[in-house]
Structures are given as structure tokens and as C-alpha cells.
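Can anyone check this?
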Amino acid sequence: MKLVNKRILITGGTSGIGLELVRQLSPDNDVIVISRSAALAGELPNDANVVKVFRANLANQAQVTSVANTIVEQYSHIDVLINNAAIQNTPEFLSDEFEFEGIRKEIDINFASLCQLTYLMLPLLLKDDDSVILNVNTGLALAPKRSSAVYCATKGALNSFSQSLRYQLADTNIHVQQAFLPLVETNMTQGRGSGKLTASEVAQSIKQGIEQGKVVNDIGKVKLLRVIQRVSPALAAKIMRNS
């Protein structure tokens, strides 16, 4: 699929990787964003198309349903759905900084809302000749780390969900893809790790993966992680445990 003259819906498109995707896709496509924040003005190149932003808290099921219904009412079809929005809480369960209330919020934003929005967007995705659902995932879905246990679990669930959904939609026009990301330089990862890819680099790789029809798009060091897992799952787990 050539990403030109397409209608693309992106969650979490006002910061980080999502914002970079909007920057790279908006000059040639009709881009719709779902985000908690409406702030986007001044962040895009001058030649970008007008980007429509819908505000919704993805931790709130009623807001997810409401924004989805509004999009269905206003648009005739969607070519690409990019499920990008996610949050990550790093404190461990035994830490004084751990927030019990954050468990539900992390699950809702990272996984539950994604399932809900995907279902609600199917009528628009089914109307096109060739559509794509791209779920943005992470290498932590393959091998979790010590911290961010809930985040890792939601990404593991996303991997299983994406595979099952691909089976369900195999006889339709919708192609289900995943992009597995390494550590990326964003606000969410400040102060953690080294050798990070920039959000711009990762957005470019995601875009290329969609255009090339990659069912599984391993980006950066995730390629190496796959190799290590095949050779020694125990070594992969040891490497990732404290990453």
C-alpha cells in the first residue's frame, strides 16, 4: 500500500512517535488523530494537510465509544488505523511510588481501548478495497523486563490479539500488521537506556513497513532480540530483565 491520498487514523498522535507519524504522513494523506490533547498547531510542516484532532481519554470506555461514533458519522471510510497510544508506569509493585489506580488506566489505554476502537472502526475499514490495521508494539512483548510489569503484560496481550485478529480478518480486505519497537527517544523514556532510535527514525520505519505490507515489522534492536530468542530464550530473558 502506497501511503499517498489515504485516510489514516492515528491514536496518540500529538506527541512522541505518534506526532512524528503525523508529520511524515500528513503532507500526502488525510490524517485523523485521537488524543487526550488537542495541541498540534505549530508542530506540523507548512505543506501538511489540515489534520483533524478528536479529543478523547482512551482510559474512558464511554469516550472511546463516543469519539468512534463521531468518526463513523463524519467519514465514509478509513484506509489505515494506527493504534499507537500507550502509557508506561515504571515503579515496581513493592515500590512506595507504585500507584494502585494506575493498573486499570494502563490496561485500558494500552489494550482495552485498542480492542474497542478496532472493533468500532471495522465498518469504515471494510468499505475500502485495501485497508490496514497497524498495532504499534514493543520488543517487551516478546521478552518482558523487571519494571513496568503491567505495560509488558499489555504489550504481550497486544501481540496475541493482533495474531488472532489477523486470522479473523483473513478473508476480508483488512490486513493486520504489527511494528515491534526498540527503546525510542521520547518523553516516556527520558533517563532510561542508551542507543535509542529517534522518534523520527522509528516513524519512518513504521511507514515503510506499512507500505511494504510487513505483517511483522521488527525495528532496530528487536531484530537481534528475535535471533537471540531463537538461539537461547533464557539468554534473551536475562538480557531484557533489567533493560
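Reply from J.R.: I decoded it. Residues 205 and 219 are 7 Å apart (CA to CA).
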